[in-house]
Each structure stands twice: as C-alpha cells, then as structure tokens.
Design brief:
single chain; alpha+beta; Phosphatidylinositol Phosphate Kinase II Beta; Phosphatidylinositol Phosphate Kinase Iibeta, Chain: A, domain 2; nine-stranded antiparallel beta sheet; seven-stranded mixed beta sheet; 16 strands; about 40% helix; kinase; ATP-binding; transferase; PInositol-4-P-4/5-kinase_core; PInositol-4-P-4/5-kinase_C_sf
C-alpha cells in the first residue's frame, strides 16, 4: 500500500466550552453509527494513522533555535492548534473491501485528512513524563498498528503499537473536546504532583469521505498500563459498583483479564495488604485524583488493577472458583491431562502471548514512581528484573499470606455526568430506590465517596506491622506446587462427583467415566 501526501496546514480547532446541560446526543447516536460503519476498515485506517503519527510528529520543531512563529497560534491557544495533512492511499486489489470509503475506481485511491491536535503541548508532555519523542516515534515507525476488539460496551476501535507500549482508542467528539480543554491543567497534574491518572500522550482526528457523508473520528494515544512483559495474571476493572459487575460461569485464563468489582470481592474477600507507607500515600493520591475528576463533573471512570502472582500458578488461580456438575467433570478431565503434561508454570501472562517476542520493555507507568515514594527494592524485587524495571506495589493476600505485585491506573476519565446520565440516574432512583447508588453511573459526588470507600475498605488494606514478605528468588517458576495442587483437586472432585451420582448411574457408567477422563 503506497501513501502520498500534500502540504501540512495549521489552524485553531473550535473547542466549545463544556456545558453541563448538553445531552451529547450527537455523540451517543452518531459516533456509534460511524464506528460501526468503519469497523470493517480498521486495517486501512490503522495503516494511514500510524503513518500520519510519525509524519506529523516530524513536523514539530525539535530544535528551538529553528523555531519560526506561524500565522495561526495566538498565545494561550496552544491547546487548540492542529497540524493537518491529506493522505492518499493507493490500495491493492485485496484491500478493496473498503470501497465505500469513496475510492476512486480509476486509480484505487482512498483519501484521509488526519490532524494532530495540540501537537506541541503533547510533544512537551511526553518529554516531561519520561517518554522521549524519539522512542515514541520508534514505537510507530517500524511496524503497522495492531488492531484489537474493545472488550467494553463502547464499541470503540482500538489499536496497539507493535511493542505494546501504547494503546490507541477512539473517543466520542465531546470526550476529545474535553481533553483539549483540560490539556494544560492535565499536563501540570502529571508533572507537579503524584497521580495514577493514565497518561494521554496524543490526540488525532481522522476525516474521510464516504459515498453518503463525511465521517470524522477522534483517536487518543495512551500509555499501555499492562504490557505482556509485566507477566500480569489478573486484571480487574473497579468502580465500586455492585450491579452487573461480576463475570458469570467458571474462571478461565481469558476471564482472568476481564474481572470486575464483585469478582474481586469473591476472590479476595479480605483484600490485599500493602506496606503502611505505600497505603498512606496511595490513599492520598487516589483521593486527590478522584476529587479532580469530581470537580470536572466526570463519572464512570475505572481503576484498573493488574495483579501478578508470585506464589500461585494459573491452575490455582482458576481453581479458586470451583466448578460444579458437568463443568466439574470437564475440569477434572483437564486437570488429569495437565498432570501428564507436567508443563512448568512460568508466570507468563497470556494477554498477548503471541506477541511476547516484541514486548521486552515494561510499561511507562511504574506504580512506585507514580506515587513518588521509596521502598527497599532489594527486599521486594529480589532477583526479579521485571519488577526492578516496572516498580510494582508489593502486596500480600490477606489470610493466605501469598505475595503479589500490583499495577494500577485510572482510565476512562473523560465521561462527564451530562443530562443523559442525569436522566438515567433519575430513572434508577424511581425504579430501584434502594440500590440506585450501586449502578455503574451515579452522580460525581456519590461516585467519589463510593470508589474511595470500596478501594480502601475492600481492596487495599494497611499492613501496619503484619507484612511477612519472604525473601526468595521470585523469578523461579512455581511448577513444584502445581502437581500437589492438581492431585488434591482431582481427589476432591472425584470424591464429590462419586457422592453426588445416583448409585445405579455409578454402576452403569464407571468404565465410561474413566475412559472419558483419560
């Protein structure tokens, strides 16, 4: 696929002031329709966007001595500046599935106009938070973006860079405008105080002509908090909500990365202890972050929590939620097979295992660094190179005293409590008065109180003097605990299954059950 381009133009983007009474009807209706329309063209869009990110970045002056004042920017309007260029893609015959994007059939061309929004502010922001623009450029330069389906209900298009360090996600237009409005203050938040806000490091708009209309979508670039190289075993999306916040069915490896609030309560009923100095700092930082979002009238954001286990295998993690009935029989058969395989567990996350060869770098989000505190790294990260580079929070599961590493960040921080959400909450109050505060979307004041209480009553526990961290080589596999665990599990399941079966069925099917298990 060949790409040609015209001259770069500059201008000031029209950013409307935030209006609390705005229903954002166009965003709720038009944006999903546009995303659905272009969902089959993600590969073409990803290639054009990746090329434009590098191209427009190169347009930002890197040498201050070469700066030339333009005719557009007015002091104080830097957050509204855009650099825009039209890109012409010459597609091959096998790419013509996107012919409804107004392709010129004579020469098989697709036209995109891609704009980098607030390019100079984002350029400086990246440098200030420790991401050199040379490294940022390299993440987009050598390979195409990888597109992957958004597991959330928003239906957003999402991409990752080949090295997994950055995630690109489509935003609704009002979310993009809000990010531009708060960008200068957001920049200061990241550089002048400890915060676990996820890092937005770029914003782009893509305009394309179709046979019916013009489509414009917005794409934000964010730091990937949970790269495969971190070897995270579980990911929780936490809001403090109770309604529709638990996965159904038995646990599986894939489900371990889609867990929610009630799953955490089920799997960690007594929470996770963390050292007192970290607990006290984290409590202050989270309280400050949530208050900042509340004052912006933002709700429905999430704390994403990644947990890497040091003393438990994947088999044990799945076995914490016991299966019953036929599912128990299938689980038993699988466990027997695993015993024969005797495959060592190496604590490697399956988030993106097929691409682990490109994921040698940790995330730019380092929890201890974000909290701006010091810990005894020799004690907590003994012989673990990944921990030394990524600086996770050490934790101990209450009651079991098993060790974990914790990664975390606030995400989805651009959803304001608009009139549409107000109507939804009013309806909940009328139809479910006793539980209306347990739904995901509630008023920002209530959201602030709920998420703080949930996190520091149920998730993070002050260890005080009770933090028995064992000094061991955490880089070693824990396969030695697998076989004994499986043997105990198989024995218990076999006993339970035998006790629950009718005696006639036991006599008739004893041989067939044994054959099925093997």
């Amino acid at each position: 696929m060949a790409i040609s381009k015209d001259e770069i133009c500059e201008g000031l983007y029209n950013v409307d002031f935030w209006n609390k009474l705005d229903l954002h009807i166009s965003s709720y209706v038009i944006t999903p329709l546009q995303l659905r329309y272009i969902s089959s063209k993600t590969s073409i869009i990803g290639r054009a966007l990746g090329h434009a990110i590098v191209d427009l970045l190169d347009n930002v002056t890197k040498n201050s001595n070469q700066y030339i004042e333009n005719e557009t920017t007015i002091l104080g309007t830097e957050h509204r500046v855009y650099h825009s260029r039209q890109y012409t893609l010459k597609v091959k015959e096998d790419d013509l599935s996107c012919s409804d994007l107004n392709i010129n059939n004579n020469d098989d061309k697709i036209l995109f106009r891609i704009s980098s929004l607030a390019p100079n502010i984002f350029y400086q922001l990246r440098e200030d938070i420790g991401i050199s623009n040379e490294n940022f450029r390299q993440s987009f330069f050598e390979h195409y973006l990888k597109d992957f389906t958004n597991p959330g209900k928003s239906g957003s298009l999402m991409y990752k860079t080949y090295d997994d360090l950055f995630i690109l996600k489509t935003l609704r237009d009002y979310e993009a405008r809000l990010l531009m409005q708060i960008l200068s203050g957001y920049h200061l938040q990241l550089t002048q105080r400890p915060t676990i806000f996820n890092r937005y490091v770029g914003l782009y708009s893509i305009r394309m002509e179709t046979s019916l209309t013009t489509i414009e979508i917005y794409v934000a670039i964010m730091v990937n908090a949970f790269t495969p190289s971190l070897k995270i075993n579980e990911i929780f999306d936490l809001k403090g909500s109770k309604i529709k916040r638990k996965l159904t069915g038995n646990l599986s490896i894939d489900k371990l990365y889609k867990l929610k609030d009630m799953d955490f309560m089920d799997l960690y009923p007594s929470g996770i202890r963390i050292p007192t100095n970290i607990y006290q700092t984290l409590k202050i930082v989270i309280a400050n972050d949530v208050k900042v979002l509340k004052k912006l009238n933002i709700t429905d954001f999430s704390l994403i929590l990644g947990i890497r286990h040091l003393d438990m295998s994947e088999i044990q993690l799945i076995g914490r939620r016991p299966a019953t009935g036929v599912a128990a029989l299938l689980s038993l058969s699988n466990d027997l097979g695993l015993m024969h395989l005797s495959k060592p567990f190496n604590n490697v996350s399956s988030l993106d295992s097929e691409n682990n060869q490109t994921s040698s770098l940790p995330s730019y989000l380092k929890p201890i660094q974000m909290l701006n505190i010091s810990i005894d790294t020799n004690l907590y990260y003994n012989n673990d190179s990944i921990a030394y580079e990524s600086l996770p929070i050490p934790g101990i599961i209450n009651k079991s005293n098993q060790r974990v590493y914790i990664y975390l960040a606030f995400v989805d921080m651009l959803q304001t409590y608009d009139s549409f959400k107000l109507l939804d909450q009013t309806f909940r109050k009328l139809t479910d008065r006793n539980r209306h505060l347990e739904y995901s979307v509630i008023e920002p004041d209530d959201y602030e109180k709920r998420i703080n209480e949930f996190l520091f009553q149920n998730v993070f526990i002050d260890a005080q003097d009770d933090f028995p961290w064992a000094i061991t080589d955490v880089s070693k596999p824990v396969a030695d605990i697998d076989n004994q665990f499986i043997e105990n599990k198989v024995s218990n399941q076999r006993k339970n299954y035998t006790q629950r079966r009718p005696h006639s069925m036991e006599r008739q099917n004893s041989n067939s059950v044994l054959e099925f298990r093997l």
